[in-house]
Fold Beta-galactosidase.
Amino acid sequence: MIRKDLLLLFTALTIGFTASAQSPLRRHINFDSNWKFSLGHAGNAERDFNYGLETAFSKSGSANNTCIEPRFNDNTWQDIQLPHDWAVGLPFQYSKKGDLEGKGYKPVGGGFPENSIGWYRKSFDVARADSGNRFVIQLDGVYRDSKVWVNGYYVGSNFSGYTAASYDITDVLQFDKPNVLVVRADATQNEGWFYEGAGIYRHVWLNVFNNLHIASDGGVFVHTSDKGNDATVTIETTVKNDNIAAANATVYTVITNREGKTLAQSKPQPLSLATYESKTLTQALTLTQPQRWSLENPYLYRAVAIVQSNGKTIDSVKVRFGVRTIVMDKDKGLFLNGKNIKVQGVCCHQDHAGVGVALPDYVQYYRIALLKEMGTNAYRTSHNPPTPELLDACDSLGMIVMDEARLLNSGSEYETQLRSLILRDRNHPSIFIWSIGNEEFQTQYTNIGKRIAEHQLIIQKELDPSRTSTYAANMPNVYYGVNQVIPVRGFNYNLGGIDGYHKDHPEQPVIGTEVASTVTTRGVYVKDTINGYVPDYDSTYPAWASTAEIWWKLAAVRPWFMGGFAWTGFDYRGEPTPYSWPNINSHFGIMDVCGFPKNVYYYYQSWWTDKDVLNIAPHWNWSGKEGQPILVWINTNAENVELFLNGKSLGKKDMPVNGHLRWSVNYEPGTLEAVAYKKGKKITSKVETTDVPKRIVLTPSKTTLQPDGEDAVVVNVSVVDSKGRTVPVAGDMIHFSLDGHADIIGVGNGDPSCHEPDKCLPGAWQRSLFNGHAQLIIKAGNKPGAVVLKATGNGLESATLTF
Ligand code: GAL
């Protein structure tokens, strides 16, 4: 399934990246461990630890009788580690209150005040020896409307559930004594219309640095331009003086290769800063014949900005960057380093099986590697600023990204969000375009929409002149509002209007911001309205959408159509189209919520890669359907295919380019085999009728875990019959136990109607297989030693894995 070299690569990268990327002068301390958590209450102040009854804001540092108080006793609260999503642990519940369907029937939001406030507390020490530095708490993502206190002092809030926030806590710290950090997250409101999780679901950091320092948010901006075979690397470094006196500094930049060897170094430039003043210095360096960042070789250089004072280095920040060019041509589409590429993209939400939106970093890499394996080269962060580690994964593995703002709005809150997104993300070579919004059907056609877009585009150019923007418009050939000013016209569906639009507006490059939307249930081939299952063929889609084959055939032959992003790479919680309860997740994924491929995966893999693809769907276990016709669907990039049932030819067919082949085959147990020829080479593939399940098989994504409290491994579970053949229809319940310093943090099986818990009680982890597959995710502890996973099932031979 997943290529070993990619797995090794991203294992190495995650290890390197969780550690601080900064010099010892500046510390980037992970704050994911030792948190206490409790639900509060959105409608009952007493059950919200008196927040709302007592005065939390009337006097500085005083929030008496609430859990904000440092001395509050949180002994009875739950011990948790970040990232944490409390919504995923709630039981599924059918209710008409609130938008529970959108949330995947997890009871959070306005209708469920008892589940919608989360309180977090963490105690931490700072040594007196460190006093004199600056201390900043950085929260990468809290869903949502978070408020933060340190030692009872309110330090700030963040409305967004997706942008990061940093708070300078220097003035309120105590040295050589415990400090208490308190976060209140309020998930009463939604920001999207899909599952968004709840709580501190990304990392938290304590950043420690000199008073004279590189600015926290986007303080080093690196961009490159070609100079013949060489490249000019421009580094803009913003230095801030937080001393109470004026200060002088010198600033210089070093560029290194991956191994840390210096390739270029600027001259030191002097700088004088008044108290609290910031200044930006621009330095340009030449890289001789650099390796280009590409999809195949995503080479990353490092730029290190260094601040010195009185001859001593007092701060430095290292950023990874790539040298690459992006051109969007109105007639010929997208060029990466001068090479024409089609956007073979997918839209994705943030959640994964078992863990909701709280993904260990490793799982970000795992998902991107799965997409690459399918032939995906582009990722749209629909519809929000992503987790930083997702972008690290795209930089490292070679995947271009459309990075999207939460919504089209230029009010101060949303201007801040857009600024924060661009300042945080603009060094990532993977990002090839920004998206300023998605399907704002109230606004997109109007002059208001046009004015907001103009405002957002000015901010984008101010903060990142090296890129451009699009907007995901669900309109056909319409040129009102946003479309009049957007540099790249985005089409969400409505591809019937695309030729007309291109003809009428030939100067505007065109991209498919959201396309396809086949709805399928993995491994199900018969419509089932009771369970809410849709056959796993590329044939069912909502009224506004299309099959994979319709959009790709259209895009593939139009050079000016840059390609597009299929909705979606993976199934996600919420939006259970076309059915509702008992469905709890969407069916749009090309893979399910665990990342198990559906049939349509092989359509994309056939035409998006040059691997030898030959896939037969469905499986061949149709007991009770003997003699009845079964629709057989073949995806391949071979030139022709001959199908055999138990050795008897069912005919040979030529493969249409960008298409698929079908047979209707009267079922008889045995072997259905396809023999195909691709450029003279024979390729074969078969499905066989299996016996009953006999033995459990565990397939881990890797066999080692770093004892760093952050690393993770994905273990896929299946069962085989007495001949070792995977049983594709198995539904056995599998129980898991784990010994050693690690924890199971979630289980899933990809069944869109399964209401089994994703989080089980300690010692009681279990999950049923869905059409032969289930998955568990293990997170490393902090101590070395063997970790042993055991899987058992009724009447099945057990399986054991040692990490
Ligand atoms: C689109 C929308 C997506 C998702 C999808 C479902 O219109 O942009 O977020 O809701 O429809 O089909």
